[in-house]
Amino acid sequence: MVQRYVMAIDQGTTSTRCILFDARGRLVSLAQREHRQHFPQPGWVEHDATEIWRNLTKIVPRALADAGAEPGQVAALGIANQRETTVLWDRHTGLPVGRAIVWQDTRTDAVVEQLAREPGAARVRELCGLPLATYFSAPRIRWLLERTPGLRERAERGDVLFGTLESWLIWNLTGGPEGGVHVTDVTNASRTMLMNLRTLSWDDELLAFFGVPRAMLPRIRPSTEVYGTTSRVAPGIRIAAALGDQQAALFGQTCFAPGEAKCTYGTGSFLLLNTGTTPVPSTHGMLTTVGFRIGDEPAVYALEGSMAVTGSLVQWFRDGLGLISSAPEIETLARTVSDNGGCYIVPAFSGLFAPHWHSEARGIIAGLTSYITKGHLARAVLEATGWQTREVVDAMNADSGLTLSTLRVDGGMTADNLLMQFVADVLDVPVVRPMVAETVSLGAAYAAGLSVGYWPDLEGLRRNWHRAGQWLPEMDPARRELEYAQWRQAVGLTFGWTRPAPAAAPGTDVIDLVQADHRRLEELFRELRNDEADRGALVAELTALLAAHAIATSRVLRSAGAGVDIFTDLLTLTGTGADVDAEKALLRLERVVDEHIRAEERGLLNQLRRTATAAERLGLGRAFAAERARRVDQARAGGLRREPGTPVHLS
Ligand SMILES: Nc1ncnc2c1ncn2[C@@H]1O[C@H](COP(=O)(O)OP(=O)(O)O)[C@@H](O)[C@H]1O
Ligand SMILES: O=P(O)(O)OC[C@H](O)CO
């Protein structure tokens, strides 16, 4: 009998893989090619979509040849892809409009900040499940349409098309300019910020908010469906599934039931929890996203904690610093020391993703002393992934009301035993890894195989899951809590690096929030000493922030009414510009704020560290963020007003 296979394409951030699987879910052949990472400016990350397509045309025939298979032996093809990465191309020539803008790229920072101030901003998360951030596609489309002459008109006419990578590859595989099928799957569409999470269609309100013409968008289809048949590269193969790579990994790990979760450790790391057929809104900085949709069945949703920089921190250690020559060497180097020596690396290279969502944050190495060696730095690199996972799991537990009891893992970084042990230690739950490490590809293959009846049902797929590795928690709880507190302190230092920190995502630790305000206030006073600074803008920000911080602190953290009344000085500062009275008010405020910061950081914040649990601090953080955001909005909208019963005191 002729062997039949399922083909998976995993179009990832660093490489593209083509894998053939057999009916037992075993890997039969694998071909892979890396593509170039372009970093034209700090914070910019680009890929050449044509290079990725060319790579695909090489690896597909190679994977077939290695398995000794003809295209006719491939029952179906499933595609998994890096999500959010934005490609625009000309429908007639098939050529991309510039390079693809990658999910890690932060160039839309200012666009996002401007959008956040627009009237519809509050509705965005409600409609699409995502916070306004540089991570997603819609701000990138807007950025491109605004900056490329004539592009908007071409997009409105449908001459220029948008797609994420699965869309681009399907269009090319099915003929490109000669009748290529322009579709996206629902999981990828759920990462654009343009799809309504409930109707699973492009949403007019979101399209208007981001200024994206409908004519350029692909049709949204389920994750499993025969979208078309390949007419190029290996003609005659049915393209029967597509999923964002993290959703594919959820599928490949057979997390089909609500409550099941996995974390994929690759360039970035992504923890997804299946929440069933109703979307669960997050109040702790998680994303609400589509997990998968099988044919016409109801969509299954997921909560996701996305960590932008994990494996790529190891790459940076290798390529940027040259301290190792291959990724696995990081473990050897880290094992030359017994702990991190007090050193923490917070890799906010693309801002901070979940649960913080601070696009303006940038990375930091904290706790340096002359004791620190490259071994300690290697440990800090690996531990950064562990602590980010801990933050995400805490937030995920708080959002879902469930307590994660085991973590299923996969991806390139799971080859690192030291790291996997550390993850088990900081989460205090067992970590397990399945036999097939290529879970993303396996998930795409499973979905495609199901779609064409190669595999009959989900239960059969579950039976293919076998445990290959397990790590059990061993860390002393007191050490875990102490180090976690230090990690969070280091995280707080990254906020507001490129510009004022935004109103914090609900659910952030109150200590981080208060400290972030303090750092910004210090910065504003410093900037105001510069005669060439934009004084009006700085004063407006300072007075709004100071009033909001004072009210939120006294309402949420201490008894109202204590301390020095700063309201009159704030009014003088805003009302009269740079005259003598305003200068005096500014000096007085600076002194009061300076004392407040020192007293609060030595006293109240340490007291909270000692006495409040992580959950209590998150709760206080939510209350603080809400009160503060309300007061900032009030101050921006109507200027400063004294409200009866709400003294503006700093103590
Ligand atoms: N032994 C290791 N220890 C730590 N990190 C590793 C190790 N091996 C690979 N990595 C990291 O894992 C990432 C590759 O994982 P992979 O799952 O292939 O990523 P992606 O699918 O995002 O391209 C790289 O960023 C690399 O630095
Ligand atoms: O290519 P990966 O595996 O790093 O995954 C990237 C994610 O899909 C980004 O959201």
Automatic annotation (TrEMBL):
Signal peptide: none annotated. InterPro entries: ATPase_NBD (IPR043129), Carb_kinase_FGGY_CS (IPR018483), FGGY_C (IPR018485), FGGY_N (IPR018484), Glycerol_kin (IPR005999). ADP binds at residues 13, 17, 267, 311, 412. Residues 261-450 form the Carbohydrate kinase FGGY C-terminal domain. It holds the Pfam family FGGY_C. It catalyses: glycerol + ATP = sn-glycerol 3-phosphate + ADP + H(+). Residues 5-252 form the Carbohydrate kinase FGGY N-terminal domain. GO terms for molecular function: glycerol kinase activity. It is an enzyme of class 2 (transferase). Belongs to the FGGY kinase family. NCBIfam families: glycerol_kin, PRK00047.1. Key enzyme in the regulation of glycerol uptake and metabolism. Catalyzes the phosphorylation of glycerol to yield sn-glycerol 3-phosphate. HAMAP family: Glycerol_kin (MF_00186). This is Glycerol kinase. It comes from Amycolatopsis viridis. The lineage of its organism: Bacteria, Bacillati, Actinomycetota, Actinomycetes, Pseudonocardiales.
